[in-house]
Structure formats: structure tokens, C-alpha cells
Amino acid sequence: MIVEKSLTSAQRDDLRVISHMMIPESDEYKVPGADDAAIQGDIIATLGRDTRMMAAALDHIAKLAGKPLAALDEAKREAVVTEFRASGGAPAALLVRVVLQCYYRDDRVLRSLGLELRAPFPKGYALEQGDW
Fold this sequence. Notes:
Elements: H1 9-22, H2 37-47, H3 51-65, H4 74-87, H5 89-103, H6 107-112
Helix pairs in contact: 2-5, 3-4, 3-5
């Protein structure tokens, strides 16, 4: 049995800060930010085998920041995230992918986009070998 590593409290805090930087709340469109508790819960639940790589991404950010990201002012946060995007490699891509994936499957976000709340494929849809 493989036991997945979990994110530390500090890593979860930095993930929430980064998520908010990526997608802040919008009163105009009546949608939460990606730092919303339900979306953050979905991110953590979605990680599974990618938890180690997400932890590596967040550790890289912490090293660049020198302290918790939340403790930095906005300009310094932006500088850290800019450097992270340039040097983060696959872990950075994973972080962005997971945050976006979980944000855009949230019911509130789907409703704001005028999308039907359903699975992404019609009922009964199955890929046949070679279809992909």
C-alpha cells in the first residue's frame, strides 16, 4: 500500500495565497476566488499521487520567498511567483493545472459561465480503443 504525503499547514496556506493570486473573487461575476474553502478542499482531495510534486512546487515557492508567501507584501509576492513560473518546471505546471481544473469544475463557476451542471461527457459515452 502506498501512502501519499499530505501538504503541511504552511504549504496549504501558500497554496491558498497563490490560488487567490491566480483567480481572485469577482463580485461582478458573482464567483468565488480559487482560494475559496470548497475549491481548496477539492484541490487537496484531487492531488492523490501528485501530492509530492505539489509539495515540491510549494517548497520551491517557500524557498524563493524566504518566509510564508502570505507574510510578503503584494509586490514581493508577485516577484516570487514570477520567478517561480520561470524556474518551477513540471511542479509549477502541475500547480497551475490543478488549481484551474478544480476552479472550473466548481458549480458556482459553471453557473456563472452559463454551463450545464453535469459530467463533461454525455451519459453512456465511452471511448472505444483507438478513439483517442
